[in-house]
What we know:
The chain is an alpha+beta fold. Helix content is about 40%, strand content about 20%. The protein contains twelve helices and 17 strands. A hairpin with a 4-residue loop joins strand 11 (about 330-340) and strand 12. Helix 3 packs antiparallel against helix 4 and helix 7 (about 170-185) packs across helix 12 (about 385-395). The longest helix is centred in the N-terminal third of the chain and has 38 residues, at about 65-100. It is elongated and about 100 Å long. The structure holds one RNA strand.
Amino acid sequence: MLDINLIRENPEIARAGMEKRGMDPSPVDEAARLDARWREVLQEADALKEERNRVSKEIGKMKDKAEREAKIAAMREVSDKVKSLDEELKQLEEDLNAVMAIIPNIPSDKVPDGFTEEDNIEVRRWGEHPDPSKTYQPHWDLGPELGILDFERGVRLAGSRFYVLTGLGARLQRALIAFMLDLHQKQGYTEMYGPFVVRGEILYGAGQLPKFKDNLYKDHEEDLYFLPTSEVSLTGMHMGEILEEEQLPIKYTAYSPCFRREKMSAGRDVRGIKRGHQFDKVEMYKYCLPEESDAELDKMIADAEETCKLLGIPYRVILKCAGDTSETARISYDLEAWAAGCQEWLEISSISNVGDFQARRAMIRYRPTQGGSPRPLHTLNGSGLGLPRALIAILENNQQPDGSVVIPEVLRPWMGGVEVIKKE
RNA sequence: GGAGGGAUGGCCGAGUGGACGAAGGCGUCUGUCUUGAAAACAGAUGUGGGUUAAAGCUCACCGUGGGUUCGAAUCCCACUCCCUCCGCCA
């Protein structure tokens, strides 16, 4: 949610932001129009309420019966007018909120122009690629051969885009989760574990609703949705709160499964475990002062990179172009892991500075130490990392000529002495 | 699932139709006093919106949403959450 004052005073900035993303900027004008009308009606209603409040107090003290009755009759009329104006206001507010909810965040100046992946910029690379002269099996062949991945049973249980990790496959994923959570704690994040379902208002605050309604799983009778990412619950954690400046920055890490209907990517990435309806993720999240969010973003990118480095996953850092940046973000960097089997770069982490966009929407503010009224703070989120794609990178890149897979050193404490996953 | 009790400001807590944005206490801040601190005393101390150059004026907010009324923290309805007891259950 943008600041309504921006729409009032500098609508051209919001318009330019939408245009940079390749969107039609007319919602900005619509918002400005609704807001102007809203203020007009509000002033009218407030004036009548002032009169009603004032006269009603007088009525309470009146002795003269006739005069009293006359005033009551007059105020009855005023009240009727107030009622109809309030209804109009409510409608205007709903309309305005609906429009404001679809206006995206303004991309930072650092975000390159462009609308597709082609326009993203590679910032840097790290790591040795597996020998390109050799062939590596994609994980959808390798996994079942090693007996650690079962697609048929996933489909039996829940349909397409579901799979089962079996034996050492499940254990490897658990090792990754434990490793990442421990690492993020060392990096200064507090581990959180919360509900995997949340109320609609929490999703709204995080900017998932109304836009991604069709991508969410929902309980059939309660107002509860399955998390599409724990970013949602980490945003909701302090919804409506006023934090003290001294508390900032707050840094959280959380593991959760993520549930996505993937309606918008029907038919894409259907092979393997790259894009399931359910996947696990370890998330990093920060609440910080506005003036510190750029520096905190750089640190978070470094934290995600460290995760890849320790796992020995070769990656590149991508700065996303305006059209490819998520609507809640001012700027997003992706870490893409090289997967030697399917021969592609896989988005393994996406790290964003959201600015005050979610904070404004979720009403998360801080009180400056200097005093003064509460201000919206900044939030950042990043995956650290997505589990299926980390698994893919490890399985495919660490393949040996005999088809076995070497387990990264850092994961072995959780693998019960297993160093290599071999065919039985 | 059944029965009952409750939700008020940073916290505790009073308030059952008009002088209540809300007593009192705690906390916090400022001042007086003091070498300094404590104590005591005095004052201040919510959030959001509109308007305004500013001061100010004004509207809304007592869990949420509706309703009754000239007027609602207070009365009515629905919902949410919390607590206690009973039942059931991982």
